[in-house]
Amino acid sequence: MATMEPSERLALIRENLAEVLNPEIIEKILNEGGNPKIYWGTATTGRPHCGYFVPAIKIGQLLAAGCEITVLLADIHGFLDNLKAPIELVQHRAEFYRRTITAILQAVGVPTDKLKFVLGSSYQKSPEYVMDIYKLSSLVSEHDAKKAGAEVVKQTDNAPLSGLLYPILQVLDEQYLDVDAQFGGLDQRKLFAAAKEWLPKLGYAQRAHLLNPMVPGLQGGKMSASDQDSKIDLLDSADVVTKKIRKAIAAPHVVEENGILSFVEFVLLPSAALRGNREFRVDRERDGLEPLVYTTIAQMHDDYRNDVLSPQILKPAVAKALNELLAPIQEAYQASAEWQEVTLKAYPPPPAPTKKQKKVKDRGSRFPGAVPIVGAGA
Ligand code: TYR
To answer: Distance between CA atoms of 187 and 45, rounded to whole angstroms?
Structure first.
């Protein structure tokens, strides 16, 4: 890092971002030779899936640019948002997230020794923090609180009051984690705008905000918790991964909204770069041709538009690279009895159906007595 110029550090911080709010805050710190303090928060709800590789890469780039990074395991937010994480499970989920996120970061080549994890509930119950919740609640309108959470907090009829507190707490986190900037996906934009507006109401400083683009799912289209085929679990076997990618929608010639190409752009190429060799290889042995070797996504887009790079040869290359990323995560998981135990506690298997339910279920079912696998994805 000592060898990186401020401009190089800034370029790495900004790489692939959709937007930066108050960039001057970061620039000033870099120009003075300091290390920006940045946090990324994740509500500990459903099981993290392959979509988590995307923020992981950005965190890796921020660390490589010499930033001090905190990962907030937002356990209280996990139940403020419509009880997505039941209160009695949320502690186990936070532990599951900590282990999983660490493994994901290591898989993409990010050293995790400098990374700090903070549990939301470890400071969000302090008298000062709670008093600030009351104060901010009296200064922010119900309308504005609702608007701030509109894209993140689940919107329902007769919504719980906690959904209005969610943005208040996320905004206060910037102050209490003592950071210069918050990083998140473009879906957090309204919360970030609220933070800029609300923190000064309490006499606190505005922070910078780094926004990642919303990356289409590997399967094309939106990832959905209830549709097992729409997302790839970190523990999916190599065969399952290959099958899911083979079935993914990737129209020939079309690079827009292409989940497969986006995964190369936002995960595979940058993770190769973090490991010192920015390169993505597409094997063509079957056709008796030399492999295609890419170092930029622009080259890949050109070839894809011309069908030199067809979905048929791209998909197996992506499946192979993804399986390579998943292998160490799965090995670490298999080797850790503790991690497996945490998983069971965090995501207890659904109770077997009662006799009565079973009867109703079995009618017309192709698999009599089968217990549905309840997806707990975010
Ligand atoms: N809003 C984030 C999400 O959608 C989670 C989060 C919670 C982020 C609290 C920051 C924070 O301070 O997952």
So the answer is: 17
Q: Give the ipTM.
A: 0.99
Antiparallel, parallel or unpaired: β 68-74 and 116-119: parallel
328 sits in which H/E element: helix 311-335
What mean pLDDT, rounded, does the chain reach? 92
Q: Is the pLDDT of residue 355 over 80?
A: no
CB atoms within 10 A of CB 15: 14
Query: Could you tell me what percent of the chain has a pLDDT over 90?
Result: 86
Strands lying side by side in the sheet with 116-119: 19-21, 208-212, 181-185, 37-43, 68-74, 116-119
Residues at CB less than 6 angstroms from ligand 1: 41-43, 72, 74, 77, 152, 170, 173, 188
CA of 327 to the centre of ligand 1 (A): 28
For residue 42, the surrounding DSSP H or E stretch is strand 37-43
pLDDT tens profile 58-109:
999 999 999 999 999 999 999 999 999 999 999 999 999 999 999 999 999 9
Minimum mean pLDDT range among 18-27, 48-57, 351-360: 351-360
Contact 318, 282 (CB under 8 A): no
Q: What is the pTM of this model?
A: 0.91
The residue among 29, 10, 72, 42 whose CA lies nearest residue 180 is 29
Which residue's alpha carbon is nearest to atom 4 within ligand 1? 152
On whether the CB atoms of residues 46 and 376 are closer than 8 A, the answer is yes
DSSP at 187: G
